[in-house]
Amino acid sequence: MRPDVTAFFDEPTNTVSYVVKDPTSDACAIVDSVLDFDNAAGRTSTESADEIIAWVKAKGLRVEWLLESHVHADHLSAAPYIQKAVGGKIGIGENIRVVQDTFGKIFNEGTEFERDGSQFDRLFKEQDRFAIGALEGFVLHTPGHTPACLTYVIGDAAFVGDTLFQPDFGTARCDFPGGSAETLWHSVQKILSLPDETRIFTCHDYKAPGRDEYAWESTVGEQKAKNVHVGAGATEADFIRMRTERDATLGMPKLIIPSIQVNMRAGRMPPAEDDGGVYLKIPINKL
User: Fold this and answer.
1) How far is CA 255 from CA 76, 236, 241, 260, 287, in A?
2) pTM of the prediction?
3) 218: helix, coil or strand?
4) pLDDT tens column, 167-193
5) Which of 38, 219, 227, 233 would you call most buried, defined as having the most Cβ atoms within 10 angstroms of its Cβ?
6) Residue ranges of the domains in the chain?
7) Which residues are CB-contacts of 109 (< 8 A; sequence separation ≥ 6)?
8) CA-angle at 244, arms to 239 and 250, nearest 5°
9) Angle (deg, nearest 10), helices 79-86 and 47-58
10) Where are the beta strands (DSSP E) in 39-189?
11) CATH classification of 4-255 is 3.60.15.10, yes or no?
């Protein structure tokens, strides 16, 4: 079955969120939502999420899932905010536990921070199946960028998070804690083993050199033929060398510190302190 896919692009974070609808009913899922965050002011706002909520309500849709492809390092998730407005279960890969343990240590989270993924409604394992109305979906475990990365295959569409970008931009970085270029290569091969006509929807676009328009949809066939990092006969050894050398030149995403602390809590802020205020930590020389 071919789901109806509507994209919402957040230019400040170059993030693409999706509403994925069962064409035979009013059921839908929302993939990789964005909570707006002014890093300099430490201020959140909800314009991006409100646009999706308004669209869902205007279409009379029923939200069954709020799906996270991974613990994002470049934007904050709006999943709890959207859940409160329109419902849905928040899902992520079961290796969120690995991410929580790794970053729980980096941010010196106390024992009150649960590292068991219990902040989420569903922890998906490899090949787990789920439904959006009559639409059938299943999960591919595709780590490498982070340990908890998933690809959601829903009908003829695959939502790959940061694992792949548009063919002219390549693949995700692998230098975050728990990342691995070798692991990413094998994850990409898993995605590219899907039928050639499978639509690929990416979580970000940065407009590759020479391209003037943002884009986020391709196919498995296009990725196999044209992806500048893994297509057209690329080898595992060449990819690992390229990815390792390239990642060594990259700076940290500007929102990584707030994003990780919030997203490993399923999009929720840390608990308020004794003055009623909410605070995020900045680890010094740990990232």
Assistant:
1) 8, 31, 27, 8, 13
2) 0.96
3) strand
4) 999 999 999 999 999 999 999 999 999
5) 227
6) 4-255
7) 103
8) 125
9) 30
10) 43-45, 62-67, 89-93, 122-124, 129-132, 135-141, 150-154, 157-159
11) yes
